[in-house]
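Researcher: Please predict.
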Amino acid sequence: MPSTPKRFSSIDIIRGAVMVLMALDHVRVFSAVPAGAPAPSVFFTRWITNFCAPAFIFFAGTSAFLHGDKLRDMRALSKYLIVRGALLIVFEMTVSRLSWTFNLDFYNYTEANVIWAIGWSMIILAALIHLPVRAVAAFGLVIIAGHNITDYFQKPLEPLSNIHFFQILYFGGEFRWLDTGPKLVVLYSIIPWAGVIAAGYAFGVIMQMDDDVRRHWCRRIGLGAIALFIALRGFNGYGNPAHWSSDSPLFFLATTKYPASLQFLLMTLGPCIALIPLLERTRSWMSETLTVFGRVPLFYYLLHIPFIHLVTVLISLVRSPSATWWLFLNHPLRIPPAPEGYRYPLPLLYLVTLLVVVALYFPCRWYGPFKSRHRDSWLKYL
């Protein structure tokens, strides 16, 4: 069996890379650059960040498997997943929400974002891990591959899309708790992400294989997923049929993220898995830097949103002071268009992202060893 550091390094590099891309996407939100446009520069600025959530959640499942292998106690792993999942949901409703908005308007806006989805997925995984790993894999793959069957039953399922439970489970949308309570905006539904984390958990078996066997299966799974995406997309098949536009070939890559379609997940997870064999042999300053971020993904996540928000407020006070009020609204979803002249040009967006990532490197480099020295404390959940 290969050494533990080698196995973890490839995953940490991928997670670190998506952490950087996550910063790019969230700077984009606060810089008022649209999520998509016919211009390739704007389109790919958003498209490349689509890898963040799938990789983040899939490898959270893999990490859970590897953590359980160390514990060798399924009850202890279940408890860990339930506690950590519940904490993530609380973080989403409080810390993350305040970081995005810098306001206290909880009554009119609380968002169920990616951390919410990971939290619920971990709680579901806490029950699944007591099944054989093949059953967990089957659960994950059926959810990932099968949930788009709902595309063919939109009319019969329409009444369910207004029921709160099913909005949280799959359809998304917004509603008020108990009809008069605070409003919840569901961006990340539980399905298909519970399937993604389950598939990632089963993938942990592959990460434990001997070097050559593991690399073979990573290439086979990763390239197979890419090939299936191209086939489904090319034939306009199941799992996110495209509404083709003759004006832009970029529509080939414009898949549905909310909820994440089969084609979206094949397009993003395939390359991540296929890269693992290459990254195991990578030794450079870039890989070492990305590893620093990849080892503390939740710490980075909770830190980067308020930091980006604060930086963009400071930039606005200098660059467009009359528009600064826009940064205290209910980001990232329930906001009006940015004031005229506020939107960042792309070079400024990328410059701010670079500066943010460099600044975040130092607390992440400190926190990694600090957490390792306090492995038995509450920090294991962060």
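Model: Strands lie at 110-112, 173-176, 183-186.
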